[in-house]
Design a protein that fits this description.
The chain is an alpha/beta fold. It has a domain of 203 residues: Spore Coat Polysaccharide Biosynthesis Protein SpsA, Chain A (Alpha-Beta Complex), CATH 3.90.550.10. The strands form two sheets. It has a seven-stranded mixed β-sheet, sandwiched between helices. A three-stranded mixed β-sheet has the order 5-10-7. Helix 2 crosses helix 12 and helix 2 runs parallel beside helix 13. The termini are far apart.
Length: 389
């Protein structure tokens, strides 16, 4: 007993009066984060689909649905050549167009007339009637000739000529195919921070699907069977202008019928329409479906941010108030954690085609708890409530 008391006195002497409990908090949250990163994100780097493709067999035919709500003339040179270069032997791309720009519509129709794999389905444009993405996707799915359908958007572009081929392989063993969508790399710190946020936000649901608990995908790169879509009634929550890649996925995806296709050649990248302000509005908009998630799922998503926030608070306390050994203890934990995070970011980036984010992630790691808290407060300030039916 005396030796225990002596040890406590020795630790208190070197860490300070409050140093011991705070150091324990820092150590516990440090260990919890290392385990969390290793189990949740480490799986992505080593993931293999349960049923691998037989070499030499042709991938299943697929239909790609891309709604258009705004005329984007750069799309003709930026994306369409990449769609035409796909190595998949049997695919079609259906553009569901609802824009008032007749010149854009005419150019798109001309391009499609010259390639049998591309087609246009036009919707009657009426500025007084808002047409949502789910209605446009529903029309496109009905027009699809193949049972395997990949949903995408006008802001997304393939990262590789093998994108469709690899995504189509997922339909060999599943009815729901979840793929990754990154952000087009650009100049500046803001672009890299946005890419970091997108990478780790996506890694959460990719990892969850790999652990046979799918709850969302990316509307820019999501595959579903047409037969499954109609057998489940399609998008039956049309009063909500979002949710097709999470709330709807929750209703149709299971451990048995879902697979993940993850690789640098199977991803798409979406165009960034702005900087941090644009991304904040995008995240705020997407958070409107978060309140419909099950409580356990919401807690599971939030726990990593809370662990990180508590860890940083404990480390800052030790660095400011603790004696020398307490400061050294905090510095060692920070250094070990930083190296683990950079290693994990490198592995994630290599698997999902995200390069040059390893060092930038350290900045994102420090800022994201503040950012997520601000985002949560902004989401609470939204007065207009929408109900999911």
């Amino acid at each position: 007993m005396e030796s225990f008391i002596t040890a406590i006195e020795w630790i208190t002497e070197y860490l300070g009066e409050w140093g011991l409990p705070i150091a324990l908090v820092a150590l516990v949250t440090f260990v919890a984060q290392i385990i969390y990163y290793a189990r949740r994100y480490g799986r992505i780097a080593t993931y293999r689909r349960r049923r691998r493709s037989v070499q030499g067999t042709e991938p299943p035919a697929v239909s790609v649905i891309i709604p258009f709500f705004d005329p984007d003339f750069s799309y003709f040179e930026r994306v369409i050549p990449k769609l035409k270069q796909q190595t998949h032997p049997r695919f079609e791309v259906i553009f569901v167009v609802n824009t008032p720009d007749e010149e854009f519509n005419a150019q798109l129709s001309t391009i499609c007339d010259n390639d049998y794999r591309l087609s246009v389905t036009k919707m009657v444009y009426n500025p007084r009637i808002g047409i949502g993405n789910k209605l446009a996707l529903n029309i496109g799915i009905k027009a699809a000739h193949y049972d395997n359908v990949i949903l995408s958007t006008q802001s997304a572009e393939p990262a590789s000529p093998r994108w469709l081929e690899l995504m189509a392989r997922g339909f060999e063993s599943a009815e729901v195919v979840i793929g990754y969508c990154g952000i087009v790399p650009g100049k500046g710190l803001a672009n890299k921070l946005i890419r970091c946020d997108n990478l780790y936000a996506s890694a959460r649901w990719l990892s969850s699907a790999m652990r046979h608990n799918p709850y969302r995908g990316s509307i820019h790169n999501l595959g579903i069977r047409k037969s499954l879509y109609f057998s489940t009634g399609g998008f039956n929550h049309l009063s909500l202008n979002m949710g097709e890649d999470d709330l709807y996925v929750m209703t149709i995806a299971s451990a048995e019928n879902t697979t993940v296709v993850a690789g640098p050649s199977s991803v798409v990248r979406r165009k960034a329409w702005g900087g941090i302000g644009w991304w904040q509005q995008e995240r705020k908009r997407l958070r409107q479906t978060f309140k419909h998630y099950a409580p356990a799922l919401r807690i599971g998503i939030a726990i990593e941010y809370w662990l990180r926030t508590i860890f940083f608070a404990a480390i800052i306390f030790l660095l400011i108030t603790a004696p020398l050994y307490g400061k050294l203890f905090a510095a060692v934990l920070l250094l070990i954690r930083a190296n683990c995070l950079m290693f994990q970011t490198h592995r994630l980036g290599r698997r999902l085609g995200e390069r040059g984010l390893m060092w930038i992630y350290l900045i994102y790691d420090l800022l994201s708890p503040i950012y997520e808290t601000q985002l949560a407060l902004l989401s609470l300030s939204v007065r207009k409530k929408k109900r999911w039916k």
